[in-house]
Request: fold
Amino acid sequence: MSAIKQIKPLGFPWETQDPFLFCVYHRDLFPKGNDELGPDPEHLKGRMIGQDFTIKDGWRMYHGSKVPGFPQHPHRGFETITVVPEGLVDHSDSMGATGRFGQGDVQWMTAGKGVLHSEMFPLVNADKDNPLLLFQIWLNLPRKSKFVEPHYKMLWAEDIPIHKTDDAHVTIVAGDFNETKSLDTTPDSWASDPENGVAVWLIKIKSNGQLELPTADEAVNRSIYFYKGDTLEVDGQTLTEQQGADLHAEQKVVLKNGSEEAHLLLLQGKPIGEPVVQQGPFVMNSQEEIYDTIREYQRTQFGGWPWPKNEFVHPRDKGRFALHADGREEVKS
Reply:
């Protein structure tokens, strides 16, 4: 039996399997930033500001009006795993937490019972371009955890384990790769229980190199996303750039790379196996719970927005840091 269940093109967003909801891949070659840490207004002409998802000149504004990104918006019932190999993100939320992260950092946020947050992409370089590479992965929460208190955890680039072979580097955001152990996730996450087999790995394989994936329980859903490179041979079948594959996790698989360095994302985990009803940024188990969520959001705004702007960003010279709701601050560079 083939180790490949199916091969599929990578769209926007990328399709995922339970326990994941989807993954969004952002690759934007942003220009120099102005004094407001956004692009020069001349660059905004001809764009659908507030809803700019069409790549023009190599980048998009998304929902931002002056700074690219996602101004304050609600979430409930799931988690976001935001992986930023290149560029920066300014985070702020309704709990009073804020921060700036990127350059290899990962933010793991449990929305739980409800939170407002913004994710802006500040163009901190005034004298050169501001490229951004970002993955946002939506990981579902089981019914028992839908209403936990919201919070987030930083996995700083300096601390994230990397599994190295002669041919490959595997950045271990979650899950263990052979003897290489991941950092702890948020405590209420489906990924916090090793029995659920959740893994999030960023994989680089050198040209003409190969990597054997460790096997996992047959109940685990496993997908790979080949987003940069030439060709990749998987169990005798060839993937090309911007293709993904769902795999049988219990079968041995060797990834054999082509002539260019290959870049992949791997997502895996045992399915939660509960009903999923999603409406925009809310993910619950029933339509009635969605209605209740909408009514509560309209009534409470999940605590309201404590920041002076909906697309709040930090000063240009601010380094990487995280200020948590309890007042604890982590400062990097």
